[in-house]
């Protein structure tokens, strides 16, 4: 029989599903565990494979699946600075079987960069909980003449517009972090956007661009392997995986902080009981010593929160990064 003529089994109606879930709840059982064999949990990553979002999703997915008794399938839906994958998650049925790896860029920057965004970071999603904080690392090619952030800034001051920097796309975390640094250091570099973090790093290592300022989970291995040189990290303190690298603040720019953060969200109408179950499972995974060590090896710090605290973080970061976008005149084009 041709593929398009095959009959798929009919899914139960929303009313029927709710009735079944109510029966399980009345019996004191977990409807989600009972349905575990029926459907996998989709974990949408709105970026290509190989970036920080993808690495973190694949780090927590096995433990999350084990905790809820349900397979977790990571799906990459890249494009438009993560907006395509976020829109896909926002319009998914809120039955508790689709979640999104949210990120500073998609939840706090994109609303200011894309004027016709197909989702709202607060109205379209129910916050589940944080996953990790990931410091950005300012890196250059290993053969570049710059040994410190001061070297880079001094050269940029003497040669405005000559240096280039890469990012995973317009409005990406790497783009915004560098724009924030440019504003504070009053320097001029030309932005070269790529379709994802991995190709932006590949071209930096090839010497086709001069710098990038992105997550340590991606660039850390290349720094330790001698292919890139780290000049500064974005957080308030040095990171254990690169202890010799000073912070931007230490390098002459007090108060600078531009770490990335990541967390899980679900479609807005996802039942509160499912959100709480996923939060408890996620926090259990993040506090496992083996996962904490794995994240530390990647340069990431576990971000254990309640759903309410993660939503509050999004609310706080939206106006902060909106101000940077406006000052730097960042657009999606």
Your description of this structure?
The protein has 333 residues and is of the alpha/beta class. The chain has two domains: 36-134 and 260-328, D-Maltodextrin-Binding Protein, domain 2 (3-Layer(aba) Sandwich); 136-233, Periplasmic binding protein-like II (D-Maltodextrin-Binding Protein, domain 2, 3-Layer(aba) Sandwich), CATH 3.40.190.10. It has twelve helices and eleven strands. The chain has helices at 14-26, 31-34, 52-68, 83-90, 104-113, 149-158, 173-185, 197-205, 216-224, 272-286, 289-297, 307-328; strands at 41-45, 72-76, 98-103, 125-134, 136-141, 164-167, 190-193, 211-215, 228-233, 260-267, 301-302. The strands form two sheets. It has a six-stranded mixed sheet with strand order 2-1-3-10-4-11, with helices on both faces. A five-stranded mixed sheet has the order 7-6-8-5-9. α3 links the parallel β1 (41-45) and β2 (72-76). α3 (52-68) crosses α10 and α5 crosses α12 (307-328). The longest helix is centred in the last third of the chain and has 22 residues, at 307-328. The N and C termini lie far apart (46 Å). Mean pLDDT is 88; it is low at 1-30 and 33-37. Keywords: Signal. Belongs to the UPF0065 (bug) family.
Number of strands: 11
Tally the helices: what do you get? 12
Sheet having the most strands: 6 strands, mixed
Radius of gyration: 21 Å
Structural class based on helices, strands and sheet pairing? alpha/beta
- The H/E string reads HHEHEHEHEEHEHEHEHEEHHEH
Number of domains: 2
Report the average pLDDT across residues: 88
Corresponding CATH superfamily of the largest domain: Bordetella uptake gene, domain 1
Subunit arrangement of the protein: single chain
Provide the CATH topology of the largest domain.
D-Maltodextrin-Binding Protein, domain 2
**Would you state the CATH class of the largest domain?**
Alpha Beta
Strand residues, percent: 15-25%
Uncertain segments of ≥5 residues (pLDDT<50)?
Answer: 1-30, 33-37
Helix content percent band:
40-55%
Cross-sheet strand order for the largest sheet: 2-1-3-10-4-11
Do you know the CATH architecture of the largest domain?
3-Layer(aba) Sandwich
Distance between the termini: 46 Å
Q: What would the principal axes of the Cα set say about the shape?
A: globular
